[in-house]
Amino acid sequence: MKNTSSDNAVKLQTKEQFKAEIARWAAVMKVKPAQIRVQRMTKKWASCSSKSRVSFSADLLREPKPFQDYVIVHELLHLQVPNHGKLFKSLMNAYLPGWENTLTDRNGSAARSLCIQQFLGQ
Ligand SMILES: [Zn+2]
């Protein structure tokens, strides 16, 4: 598999394009985040707060689309389901069939945690 960090082939997506993509997913999933932020985050891919504010790491702009989609859907889904239980997984399957394979493919990157502490270990 080709390493996506080679800088000549990869065209950077702008923050605005990425935010538009998040807004598109929010509409599809019928969730209304109070705020969407794309910012420098080095330890996590994304996080969401209890006040429906979602933040995404700017590093995602360099990630392949399927992985971006996974992180977006995962985080937005927390506005509906606050844990990683059965309902969470079945909704993930409904919105993004095959998400588990995406995650396996991106194993290295996915090692970075997705969510804020309160969601871990569930
Ligand atoms: Zn999560």
Can you tell me the CATH architecture?
2-Layer Sandwich
Could you report the average pLDDT, rounded to the nearest whole number? 81
Strand percentage lies at 5-15%
Cα-to-Cα separation, first versus last residue: 32 Å
CATH 4th-level superfamily? Metalloproteases ("zincins"), catalytic domain
Radius of gyration: 14 Å
- Provide the low-confidence segments as ranges: 1-9, 116-122
Question: Can you tell me about this structure?
Answer:
The chain is an alpha+beta fold. The chain has one domain: Zincin-like, CATH 3.30.2010. It has 5 helices and 3 strands. A 3-stranded mixed β-sheet has the order 1-3-2, covered by helices on one side. Strand 2 and strand 3 form a beta hairpin. Helix 1 packs across helix 2. The longest helix has 15 residues. The radius of gyration is 14 Å and the shape is globular. The termini are far apart. Bound molecules: zinc ion (ZN). Zinc ion (ZN) binds next to loops.
Strand-helix topology:
Elements: H1 15-29, E1 35-39, E2 46-48, E3 53-57, H2 65-77, H3 86-95, H4 99-105, H5 107-110
Parallel strand pairs: 1-3
Antiparallel strand pairs: 2-3
Helix pairs in contact: 1-2
